[in-house]
Amino acid sequence: MKRILLSWSSGKDSAWALHVLRQQPEYEIAGLLTTFNQEFDRVAMHGVRRALVERQAEAVGLPLWTVPLPWPCSNEQYETLMAKVCTDALQRRIEGVAFGDLFLEDVRAYREKQLSGTGLEPMFPLWGMSTHALAREMIATGLKATLTCVDTRKLDISFAGRSFDEKLLMELPAEIDPCGENGEFHSFAHAGPMFSTEIPIEAGEIVIRDTFAFADLLPLTSGDARLSSHSLPASSR
C-alpha cells in the first residue's frame, strides 16, 4: 500500500479527490497538506480560517500537515518551504502527493517539476474528468460547499458566499468553468461522503481585497466569539 499526502485547499476539488482516493485500496492517505498565510492564519486564496480546516481534518479522520507561508511570499521562499516538507514526508515513509487539479497543464507541469527528484510521486486522481459532469456528480452525491473567493474580473461579486449547488451551476455565465478550474472561484467544502459529519458554518462579511471578493465563514460552536473579517488576505499564495 502506497502512503500518500493529499494537497488540501479546503475546497470541493480537494474533498472530491479524497473521496476518489479512498475508493482505491492501494493507497493509504497519511494526511492533508495545507499551506496557510502566516500573517492572516487562513488558507491562501480561499481565505478560509484555520479553525475550519482543522474541523475538516477531524471530520475526515486525517492529520493536518500545515505549512506556514510568510506574507508576501516569493516563489523562492515557497519552494524552499515545500522542499522541507518533501524531506519530512520521505522520512515518514510518504511516497506521493495527490492534487485535485482537473485540466490546467501549466499547473500540473509546475507540480511535477517541484516534486521531480524528491522521491515523491505527483498524483492527479481527478485529471481529465469533465468538469460539467463532475460538478453535477459532486452535488448529486451530497457534497456541500460554499464559494469563499470570487475573482471579480471573471465573475460577479454576488456569487461570493453562495452555495455550490444546481442553482449556481445554472446561473454561472457560459464562459465560467463549473468547477472554477480557471480561478474564477474557490470554495470551502463542509459536507459530503468524505466527511463523517457536516461542519456547521455561519456566513460572515463579504470583503474586497484587490480584485477578489472573499466571503468570510465562521465556525459554529457555542463557545465561539464573533470574529472580524479584517484579516482576510489578498491574492497571496
Task: Give a verbal description of the structure.
The chain is an alpha/beta fold and 237 residues long. The protein has helices at 12-21, 50-60, 75-91, 105-115, 131-140, 166-171; strands at 2-7, 27-37, 42-43, 64-69, 96-98, 121-123, 144-151, 185-191, 201-209, 212-219. The chain has one domain: Rossmann fold. The strands form two sheets. Strands 1, 2, 3, 4, 5 and 6 form a six-stranded mixed beta sheet that branches. A four-stranded antiparallel beta sheet has the order 8-7-10-9, with helices on one face. It is 27% helix and 27% strand. The longest helix is centred in the middle third of the chain and has 17 residues, at 75-91. It contains six helices and ten strands, in the order βαββαβαβαβαβαβββ. The model is unreliable at 222-231 (pLDDT under 50).
Give a short summary of the structure:
The protein is α/β, with parallel strands linked by helices and 237 residues long. Helix content is 27%, strand content 27%. It is globular and about 45 Å long.
Number of helices: 6
Number of strands: 10
Report the biggest beta sheet as strand number plus sense, adding barrel if it closes: 6 strands, mixed
| CATH fold-level name | Rossmann fold
Rg from alpha-carbon coordinates? 17 Å
Number of domains: 1
- Please give the CATH class: Alpha Beta
- Average pLDDT metric: 92
In the CATH hierarchy, what is the architecture at level 2? Answer: 3-Layer(aba) Sandwich
Find the CATH superfamily. Answer: HUPs
Fraction of helical residues = 25-40%
Q: What is the succession of H and E elements?
A: EHEEHEHEHEHEHEEE
Category from helices, strands and their pairing = alpha/beta
Rough outline: globular
List low-pLDDT spans.
222-231
Q: In what range is the share of β-strand residues?
A: 25-35%
How far apart the termini lie comes to: 32 Å
